[in-house]
Amino acid sequence: xxxxxxxxxxxxxxxxxxxxxxxxxxxxxxxxxxxxxxxxxxxxxxxxxxxxxxxxxxxxxxxxxxxxxxxxxxxxxxxxxxxxxxxxxxxxxxxxxxxxxxxxxxxxxxxxxxxxxxxxxxxxxxxxxxxxxxxxxxxxxxxxxxxxxxxxxxxxxxxxxxxxxxxxxxxxxxxxxxxxxxxxxxxxxxxxxxxxxxxxxxxxxxxxxxxxxxxxxxxxxxxxxxxxxxxxxxxxxxxxxxxxxxxxxxxxxxxxxxxxxxxxxxxxxxxxxxxxxxxxxxxxxxxxxxxxxxxxxxxxxxxxxxxxxxxxxxxxxxxxxxxxxxxxxxxxxxxxxxxxxxxxxxxxxxxxxxxxxxxxxxxxxxxxxxxxxxxxxxxxxxxxxxxxxxxxxxxxxxxxxxxxxxxxxxxxxxxxxxxxxxxxxxxxxxxxxxxxxxxxxxxxxxxxxxxxxxxxxxxxxxxxxxxxxxxxxxxxxxxxxxxxxxxxxxxxxxxxxxxxxxxxxxxxxxxxxxxxxxxxxxxxxxxxxxxxxxxxxxxxxxxxxxxxxxxxxxxxxxxxxxxxxxxxxxxxxxxxxxxxxxxxxxxxxxxxxxxxxxxxxxxxxxxxxxxx
Amino acid sequence: xxxxxxxxxxxxxxxxxxxxxxxxxxxxxxxxxxxxxxxxxxxxxxxxxxxxxxxxxxxxxxxxxxxxxxxxxxxxxxxxxxxxxxxxxxxxxxxxxxxxxxxxxxxxxxxxxxxxxxxxxxxxxxxxxxxxxxxxxxxxxxxxxxxxxxxxxxxxxxxxxxxxxxxxxxxxxxxxxxxxxxxxxxxxxxxxxxxxxxxxxxxxxxxxxxxxxxxxxxxxxxxxxxxxxxxxxxxxxxxxxxxxxxxxxxxxxxxxxxxxxxxxxxxxxxxxxxxxxxxxxxxxxxxxxxxxxxxxxxxxxxxxxxxxxxxxxxxxxxxxxxxxxxxxxxxxxxxxxxxxxxxxxxxxxxxxxxxxxxxx
Lengths: 612, 360
Ligand SMILES: [Zn+2]
Fold this sequence. Notes:
A: Penicillin-binding protein 2a (Domain 2), Beta-lactamase, seven-stranded mixed beta sheet, B: two-stranded antiparallel sheet
C-alpha cells in the first residue's frame, strides 16, 4: 500500500499532510517493531517457550505401588497395606504471603499452631528438593473431609491416599518381619536414578529388608495438566503402578505371638524349627518395637529411649551370638563318642571341681555330682565330666566337630544381620592374640564358655539335626513367592547342608541324655517336663563375667547376670518341633528358660493357645 | 430507501471491514478466554450496543452535534463524574445493572475538544493561544483520570501530546522539552523514583528483570511471554491455549487478551490482528489526510492516535517491548465502556470518511 494523499491546492493542507505522512511513517515503524518482536517470540523462540509452557503446566505424578504382602503358613497376614491419607503441599504455590495464609488455614484445621506448622513446612521443604512437600501423614478421616471441603481456599494443598505398611503382629514379629521407613537424603541421592522419590519407603530389617526387591512394586506414573493454582485439570497419560510380589512363609504367626508374649518383659529370643526339614516356625526376639512407629519416625527423646534401653529392643537376639553354655556339651559329647575317647558307661567322679595343672575348674554344683556317666552328665549338666572329656578330645577335634555341627558360620537362612558366632581354635588364637592356645581354654570351650559363641538359630539348627537322625538342614522360611494375581513365581523347600559327623548310636545316646535332662530325677530341665508328651532338652547357663566363686545370678546386677538357655525338642519318639529359648541376663537356664519352653510345648501339644 | 442508502455512500469500507474483523477476533477470543462463560455473552451484548452507537455516529451530522457548546457542556459533566470517582476512590461509575468507566469516554471528549480547538485556530503552527487552550482543557482530564487510573491518565496525556505534535509543535520546543526531561530525569531521577508508589516502581523493575519479580508484576510478563511464544507459527488452536485454559494468564479477558489470541492462533493469527490494527490506524490517518473538512481531519487524527497508543502500549507490553500497563486493547479486551467508546470513534471516522471529497 502506498501513501496516496489527495492533492489539494490549499497550501495549509500541504503542511498538515506532511505532518500526517511523517506520523504515518512513525506508525509503520512502530508496527514493524511489534511484528518483528512477535516473529522473534513465536517463530524463533517458539520451541523454547513451548517447552517452558509444558514444564509449567504438565506434571508427572508418581503413583505409589503397594508393597507385596507377607503371609504366615496359615495365610494370615504378617505385613500388609492399609490406606492412609497424607497431606502434601506444592512449594511453587505455598510460599510468600499467600502461602502463609494457606498455612494459617491449615493450622486451624489440623489444630496446630501456625509458627510450628510453618517451621515444619520450611524444614520439610528443604528436604523435598522442589518436589511436593509432605506435611502430615495418617490424617483422620474428618480432617481429610474438612480440608477437601475448603479445597478452593487451599490452592497447592493435596491429599493423597497412600498404601501404608501394616503389621498385624506389631512388635511380636518386629525382628522377623522387620520394618520400613522413609528413604533418607543420602539414599535418595543414590537411588533417585532407580525411580525412588523422597516419600518412598525402604525395607530396613528382617524380611522387609531381605526381600526388598520382591516386595517393592514398580511405581506408576501419571502425566497431568496442572492449572495455575496447582489443581489437576486433565490426565494426559497414565502408567499404572505394579503391586509388589507377596511371600508365603513357613512361620506360624500364632507361635510367633505366643512365644513373644512368653518372654514378657525379658530380653531374649525364641526359635522354633521343624526338625524334619528345617523349616522355621517362629523367630522371636524381645523386646521388640512397634514397627508402625518407624513409618512416622521418632522424636529425639523416643529414639534416645530406644537406643539406650539396656534390653536393646533394636537387636534381634535370635541371630546374635552368645556363649552357648552347657547346651554346647552335646557337641563335646558327640566328639568324645565319635572319637571314642570315652565309653558312654565310663563314670567320672565329680568333687565339684576339676584340676588341670595348677588351675582349678569349678563344677556349677560346688559340692559335686559324685560319679556320673555320659547320660547322667548330660542330665545334671556336670561341668567336671565335660572338663575331663574336653581335655581328652582336644581343641582340634572339638572345633572340627563344632564346625561340622553348623557353628561358626551363618545358618544359611539368609537373614540380614545374622552373626556367624565363633568356634575358637589354635589358629584363631594365634591370629587374634598372637599367643599359643592354652590347654585350659579347651576346658572352657567344652562347656560352652571361653571364646565360643553361638546364635540361638545355630543351636536350633544343630539340635534339629541331632534329633532328626543327623541331617543338618539349612533353616528356611520362605515357602512361596507369588504375584498379585496369585501366580506362584517361586517355591522353596528344605535344603540339606550335610550330615552330622555322628553315628546313629551316638545320636541315640545324646537324645537319651536330653530326655533324661528333662525327665530325670535330677534333670536340670525339669521345668519343661510334660505329662503326656516326652520332651527332651538341655539347659545352658552362660557366664558373662568370670568369677572365682559362683554367685547366684539373682544377686548380681542385671548386666552381670548369666544368660539362660534352654534347647528342647518333642515328642522324643518322633520329634516334630525344636525350640531354643534364650533369656539374656536371665540367670539359670533351668529356672529362667526351661519353664518358658515347658509352657509353650504344653500349649503346642494340647492345642490350647493362650497368648498370655 | 434511496435516501438512506445514499447516506452510506462513500464510507470507508476498509475501516468498516477491519473493524468487523477485529470484532470477530475479539468475540472468538472472549469465547475462548471465558470458556463460553458470562463474560463472552456480555461482550456480545456490548458489541451489539456498540453497533448501534457506531450506526448513530456514522449517520449523525457531527458538525452540528459536536458543537462547542455541547462538547463543552459534556466536558464539564465529565469532569464532575471524574471528581466523584476521585472522591470515591474508584475507577467505576456504578449504576444499577452496569458499571461505566468514564475514563474511556474521557478519551473521546479529549479528542473532540482538541479537534475543536485546532480547527478553530488561525495558521498552521502551534501558537501560544492554541497550546494554552489545549493544555488547559487536557490538564484537568489527565489529572482527574490519573488519580484513579494512572494508566488511562497516561493514555490521555499521550493523546494530548499527539495533538500537540500534529498542531505543529516547533522543533526547538521538542528539543528543549526532550533535553529538560533528560536533565530532570538525571538530576531528580532518584528523588522522583522515590516519589513513585511501590507498585509503580515494581512495574519498571519487573520490566527490566521479570524473573526476579516472578511472583508479582514479573509473573504477568513471564506468563504472557510463555503464552505468546508457545503459540508458534500456527498456534495451539481455538480454546486449546494451555496458559489461558489453565489460568496461568492473569487478566486474560482484559489486559492480556492478545496473549490468549497469540497462543491459540499462533504467528499467523497474531500478525493478522496486528496488521489489522495497523491498516485500521493507517486508513484513519489516510482519511484524515484526504478529508477536506478541518474538524473531521482532526477528529480522525485523534481517533487514530487513540487506537495507536492503546494498541502499541497493550501489545508492546505483552511482547515485552514496554513495561506492562493496564490499557485495554480495542475490541479484543473485555469491557463495555471500552467497546462503546471505540465503536463510537469508528462510527465518527466512517461518518467523516463519507465527506472526504465534499467541500462545505
Ligand atoms: Zn559336677
